[in-house]
Amino acid sequence: MTGLTRAMLRDPRLGRLLRQLAGRILHKADVHVAKETIGTSYGSHTVLLGALNERSIVYSFGVGEDASFDLGIVERYSCEVHAFDPTPRSRSWAQRHIRHPLIRFHPVGLAARDGTVDFAAPENARNVSFSRADSTRDDQDTVRLHVSSLPSIMRDLDHDRIDLLKMDIEGFEYEVLDALHATDIRPKQIAVEFHHGMYGYTADATNRAVRALRDAGYGLFHVSDTGREYSFCLLRS
Predict the structure, then answer these.
(1) Is 211's pLDDT higher than 80?
(2) Which of 104, 113, 148, 160 has most Cβ atoms within 10 angstroms of its Cβ?
(3) What pLDDT does residue 113 have?
(4) DSSP reduced 3-state for 152
(5) In what order do the strands lie in the sheet with 115-120?
(6) Taking the CB of residue 128, how many other CB atoms lie within 10 A of it?
(7) DSSP code of residue 122
(8) For 114-152, what is each residue's pLDDT tens digit?
(9) Assigned domain for 52 exists
(10) Residue 22's pLDDT band (boundaries 50, 70, 90)?
(11) Residue 186 has what DSSP assignment?
(12) Smallest Cα–Cα separation from 188: which of 156, 169, 149, 160?
């Protein structure tokens, strides 16, 4: 590989173009607003610039072992962040590393309904993300964990609104968004990682989710260079 070829492959614009051609980037932003990306390259999401304040209610689902987004929100806006993750590894990590008084960690997962769900451990032990277990496989290492719906969590925390909803929940986002549309809950911002091409979800699942959000009054203001992290803002309720 020549030096020119290496330089081309490192160019983020070229990388994005190649991912578009390969079908990995499905959508483009259709709302142009001031925005900022918060967190490490692994755990970052993009939000509206200056749209939060110390009274904002932020829910961050899917902490894993990277709370850089949560910490960044707290540092910029001095608001309380409710961080959620039910997996044993994340719970243990959070107990050791999340010390900020404005971050409240809750060991519960997000799903369409309340109850328990079998989660599959990552096949690579170096990875941290658990996902919904595949009921057709009997070779997965699974653990049953507690999950709650968004309305139940809001009721438990005595919240009547959400200013920012962040979800990196390994495929559960599709059912959660479907359930959201059946309620009157309309977060002002939604930052979500979609998992098409993983866990049995296709590009059609993400296309349907994006279309439903637009129909519900949301505009898409950011799609990451990986084609997975999307950010929406509420344009009309």
Answers:
(1) yes
(2) 148
(3) 96
(4) helix
(5) 109-110, 142-148, 115-120, 131-132
(6) 17
(7) P
(8) 999 988 877 776 677 787 766 667 667 888 999 999 999
(9) yes
(10) very low
(11) -
(12) 160
Q: Is residue 104 part of a domain?
A: yes
Q: Which residue has the tokens 């505009």?
A: 219
For 73-105, write each residue's pLDDT tens digit: 999 999 999 999 999 999 999 999 999 999 999
Domain residue limits at 198: 29-111+150-234
Tell me how far apart the alpha carbons of residues 48 and 94 are, in angstroms, rounded to a whole number: 27
Question: Rounded to an integer, what distance in angstroms lies between the CA atom of residue 143 and that of residue 117?
Answer: 8
Interatomic CA distance for residues 163 and 57, integer angstroms: 5
Asked, for residue 39, whether it belongs to a domain, the answer is yes
CA dist 19 and 130 (Å) reads 25
CATH number at residue 81: 3.40.50.150
3-class secondary structure, 166: strand
CA 98 to chain centre: 19
CA distances from 210 to 20, 44, 215, 217 (A): 17, 20, 9, 11
Structurally, how many domains does the chain consist of?
Answer: 1
Binned at pLDDT 50, 70 and 90, residue 165 comes out as very high
pLDDT at 18 over 80: no
d(CA 163, CA 190): 9
**Is residue 154 one of the residues assigned to a domain?**
yes
Token digits of residue 188: 């002002």
- 123 by Cβ neighbours in 10 Å (0-12 / 13-18 / 19+) ranks as exposed
Calculate the CA 97 to chain-centre distance: 20
